[in-house]
Amino acid sequence: MSSSVLECKPCRMESRADLHTISCIYMLELITGVFMTSKPWLASYDREVPASIEYPDLLIHQLFEKAAGRFPDHTALNFFGHIISYRELQETIERLAGVLQGIGIKPRDRVILFLPNTPHMVISFYAALSIGAIVPILPTW
After folding, report:
1. Are 13 and 20 in contact (CB under 8 A)?
2. Which DSSP state fits 44?
3. Buried-most residue among 65, 73, 82, 138 (CB within 10 A)?
4. Residue 51 within a domain
């Protein structure tokens, strides 16, 4: 991306070209209601970055299970030097999923996770998803 400085004639702003172009287009779209693209962030992508990628039609916990099956001995988590392999993580997730079912959580139940960013959060998240529970993501936590 270019980082030259330019002056935008329509808005009379001087800015780095790459960042300004994106923000200027976005502002013009908001003001006029005419949208040049439905994905304005694509203008900021480097040329070699594709606009989209192909991915399997799987749920996120199924993607994890697939990775655990392919790379059981690889590191899944490294928490302050404590290494957890995909195999260990998957086994722990399955145990917690059984516990959650045992206390009555069933598919479509909502499970709120109010945990810090630790292995416990990862395990709880995937365990709840694996039994079909809905796990809202709380961005403020």
Report:
1. yes
2. G
3. 65
4. no
CATH of the domain at 99: 3.40.50.980
Task: Look up the pTM and report it.
Answer: 0.64
Number of domains in the chain: 2
The verdict on residue 135 lying in a domain is no
Tokens linked to 77: 């988590």
| CA nearest to 138, candidates 64, 93, 62, 121 | 121
Residue where the block lists tokens 């923000």: 23
- H helix count then E strand count, the chain: 4, 4
In angstroms, the CA 16 to CA 3 distance is: 5
pLDDT tens-digit map of 53-99 = 888 888 899 999 999 999 999 999 999 999 999 999 999 999 999 99
Joined together, the tokens standing for residue 132 give 């079909």
Instruction: Judge whether 93 and 127 are in contact, CB under 8 Å.
Output: yes
Distance CA 45, CA 60 (A): 25
